Amino acid sequence: GGAAFPRDGRGGGGPVHQDGMSLRDWFAGQALANATLAPYVDSGGWSEHTVARLCYAIANAMLKERAK
Predict the structure, then answer these.
(1) pTM for the whole thing?
(2) Residue 28: is it exposed, middle or buried by C-beta count within 10 angstroms (0-12/13-18/19+)?
(3) I need a labelling partner for 32 at 20 to 30 A (CA). Which of 12, 19, 40, 44 fits?
(4) Quick one: how far is CA 18 from the chain centroid?
């Protein structure tokens, strides 16, 4: 999926190169930020591990759809 926030080192601070976070990680973070997940976690219905797996499953689906 490539980087979400790549830097090329042209920011005046010298030849620093940073790939940034992966687009998959960005998508997973956005899924995590989705308020509709909160009730499941707060009620004890889902563990943090389950939520993390769901967020990455959503991110993977977004990358697959984006590639079409």
Answers:
(1) 0.56
(2) buried
(3) 19
(4) 17
Determine whether 27 is exposed, middle or buried from the number of CB atoms within 10 Å of its CB (0-12, 13-18, 19+): buried
- When pLDDT is cut at 50, 70 and 90, the band that residue 9 belongs to is low
In this structure, what token pair is assigned to residue 66? 């984006």
Residue at 47: amino acid letter: S
Question: Residue 18 pLDDT more than 70?
Answer: no
Q: CA of 22: how far to CAs of 5, 16, 26, 50, 56, in Å?
A: 8, 18, 6, 21, 12
pLDDT of residue 14: 53
Gap between the Cα atoms of 1 and 68, Å rounded: 12
